[in-house]
Automatic annotation (TrEMBL):
<dbReference type="InterPro" id="IPR009080">
    <property type="entry name" value="tRNAsynth_Ia_anticodon-bd"/>
</dbReference>
<dbReference type="InterPro" id="IPR002301">
    <property type="entry name" value="Ile-tRNA-ligase"/>
</dbReference>
<comment type="subunit">
    <text>Monomer.</text>
</comment>
<comment type="function">
    <text>Catalyzes the attachment of isoleucine to tRNA(Ile). As IleRS can inadvertently accommodate and process structurally similar amino acids such as valine, to avoid such errors it has two additional distinct tRNA(Ile)-dependent editing activities. One activity is designated as 'pretransfer' editing and involves the hydrolysis of activated Val-AMP. The other activity is designated 'posttransfer' editing and involves deacylation of mischarged Val-tRNA(Ile).</text>
</comment>
<keyword id="KW-0067">ATP-binding</keyword>
<keyword id="KW-0648">Protein biosynthesis</keyword>
<dbReference type="Pfam" id="PF00133">
    <property type="entry name" value="tRNA-synt_1"/>
</dbReference>
<dbReference type="InterPro" id="IPR023585">
    <property type="entry name" value="Ile-tRNA-ligase_type1"/>
</dbReference>
<feature type="short sequence motif" description="'KMSKS' region">
    <location>
        <begin position="567"/>
        <end position="571"/>
    </location>
</feature>
<dbReference type="Pfam" id="PF08264">
    <property type="entry name" value="Anticodon_1"/>
</dbReference>
<dbReference type="InterPro" id="IPR013155">
    <property type="entry name" value="M/V/L/I-tRNA-synth_anticd-bd"/>
</dbReference>
<feature type="binding site">
    <location>
        <position position="868"/>
    </location>
    <ligand>
        <name>Zn(2+)</name>
    </ligand>
</feature>
<feature type="domain" description="Aminoacyl-tRNA synthetase class Ia">
    <location>
        <begin position="22"/>
        <end position="604"/>
    </location>
</feature>
<dbReference type="InterPro" id="IPR014729">
    <property type="entry name" value="Rossmann-like_a/b/a_fold"/>
</dbReference>
<dbReference type="InterPro" id="IPR009008">
    <property type="entry name" value="Val/Leu/Ile-tRNA-synth_edit"/>
</dbReference>
<feature type="binding site">
    <location>
        <position position="851"/>
    </location>
    <ligand>
        <name>Zn(2+)</name>
    </ligand>
</feature>
<keyword id="KW-0479">Metal-binding</keyword>
Amino acid sequence: MPKTDFEMRGNLSKKDDKFILFWEKNLNFNNNDSKNNNKFILHDGPPYANGDLHLGHSVNKVLKDIVIRHNLLLGKDVEWKLGWDTHGLPIEIAVLKKGFLKKDQQNDKLFLSVYYKFALDQVKRQQDQFRKFALYTDFKEKYLTLNKFYEVKELEIFFDMFNKGFVYRDFKPVYWSWSSNTALAEAEVEYKKIKEEAIYVPFKLKNEDLYFVIWTTTPWSLTANVAIAFNKKIEYVISEFKNKKIVIAKNLIGLLSKKWEQELKVIKNIDLNKYLNQELINPLNNNKSILIIGDHVTTDDGTGLVHTAGGHGLDDYLIVKKNNLPIIVVINQIGKMINSGKYDDLFYQKANKEIIADLIKNNNLIAKEIIEHSIPIDWRTKEPLIYRATKQWFVSIHKIKKELINELNNVGWYPDWGKNRLSKMIENREDWCISRQRIWGVPIPIIYDQNGNVIKSLKLQQNILNLFKKEGKIGWYKKDLKDILPKEIKYHQNMKKETDILDVWFDSGSSHNFVLGNNQADLYLEGNDQYRGWFNSSLITSFIKNGRAPYKNIFTHGFVVDNNNNKMSKSLNNGISPIDIVDKNGIDILRLWIVENDYFSNLKYSHEILNQVTIDYRKIRNTIRFLLGNLNDFEKNYIVKEKELSFISKMIFDELKKSQLKINQNNQNYNYYFKVKEIINQLNTGAISYYLDYVKDIVYIEGKDSKKRTESQYILKQIFDYIIYNFASIIPVTIEEAYQSFWNDDNISIFKTKYPNFILTPIIDTDDKTWSEFNLIKSEVNKEIEKLRLNKIISRSQEAKINLWLPNNLKRFNKKELKDWLMVGEIEIKIDLKLKISAEKFIEGIKCARCWKLFNKKEISFDICKNCKKIIDDNY
């Protein structure tokens, strides 16, 4: 009878620590054989070191661990070093909120050590939580962006880009966060739909009673206006509105008539080229505005004429610069108005209201409307952003856009739409603003001479790198400038160090230089928000430095949502801690939930969903327990030549291999969701489910050393291997427990072995139709048996007699085989044109007292069947 110490109940939460400690003690996570060319490198994108982990963290790290363990079992040397992003504004804000620094100390370089300690504490906190996820990695071997040696590798990239002419400084509009008091890059920008007022404002031609009407959603920017732009390809007309002759685009007449609630009629067409460079009057402040040409002007909204303020829009900036017009900035770093007369010192949103009121008061407003549109917001503070011209450092993207996009052809994409998504983002992105007006980050390593020009010197760059190697960023602030200069450069008291720091995306985007060196990672695996973030910045830095992407493949997953498809977060009161799930259910339940989701899209979580996962886990565990119980007396290394297997054994083994072929294909495409689905189906309704039911009579009844029982145990061992090796990377705690139980040795690990041959290269010998044809018969027979059960005619299949009409293509199955395989009392077979089945009670059947099967009277002797009598005679 079955015998095993593998418990029916998992009690996983009590076992997790035991196996995590066992792996940390017995597995060498960095056992990389330099002679082994079969390596797999997964480069870890650094999560931000601030706060407790959420479910998204668990999804990301568990998927990475599954990939790593799978490649380990393939016999590869695996490399996976965890990393943390440890600079940036969130840490500055957290330090302030928690009272570690006062407001007036926040930007004082003397207190950098406070940020440093806080970041390290956050890393330790998250590391302890990550450890609960049972990850195959050495937590002692991690990388942090605040590490001075990491900073050196980051600055090497900066200098390389600078020396190649990709880094430059310019005064132009960038996304500016008044709430964070810094410039932002596109990767730090989110979008939010809002409703706000838009206004239509007439600019009068200086020497003529003609008004050029513009439309804007930023009334405050009228104080920075220097021009009105038109497009030569658009047809313009003169119309009349409330006794004013106005100029607008002809194809907008109908739409504006509805919006302004007055029918507008075309008086005549107007050629605006004749008015080029003529002076208009800004109705808000009577300042001069010039009529210019702008190819960016469209009739998608507005009037076909565009109000132009070069200090507060990139298109505006380019056209203003082209026309040698002044660039005026009217908002300061904290969002208050400057250079705007009576509106100075007002917060820009309050200035909007006063400007609209003044325009109405002076009869200078054509109309206003409420519109709904998307605005850029700060990804951290969620407050609106403005375009604001400031001096910033940039990486030139336009120089290499085509090359970057072409390089994506050399990358594998999972899912495949990722390539198009990243291509579009690169195609549409502007030059990368890499400077930040903050304190906690890597300083931009630039020194200006006494005239404000950048000092370009390779020796100076090397001195700076040496300084960072010794002291890190602290040294940059503490060391006197004159002590950094090489002998060839004479010190001047008006020389200055750059005070800005590098964008945190430049930090993380340089990680390949520290972790990979000159190698390419086999895989980058992150959430699908990283197309605009880490994948993007890493591609740019690596391509400029090394001429290629830092990754061979990209695999992305979605976000965690609730049953209503709402993103899960603490702010929405629907956030769930993965640590709470692990502490209650064990890590294997959480890991199984992740792969039972189609994670290429968003992952749904609820208590009901987790309960279903638990049911699936019990099925897996109970199946393993059944297998271990019936393999307890099996000769562990027993091998049967496949050609010597019985037909049923060969058929089941080949079904395992067919299933494994599907699994292997899904493994190659990182489709672990379909892999798990395939195995669960096998356990519930497939060949495994059938065979485990069928084989009970053999392993319980046949003689211990009989060929039939030993062969059946051999097939059970293949099923056991199929389950434990395919689930090893997914539910490692359970599988390690099962593996040690099978070998009765608590000191061994499945993760020191490789996939068996039939897992790696399944070869199928039998006709592909064998199982499907038998399964067709079995399915139809089971339907008839179920009818008898429901009508309470029989209680089990052995009490049924089956009448079977087989067509010629199913004649391969004989009566004796089918009776045995279908587990029925009796069967009669006839030949017909198509498959037909009927079932009845096996009335004349007599039950064997030993095996409980039903037989004809002549097959029973002394209450037992002939087969049981032979087994008893041979073994007792």
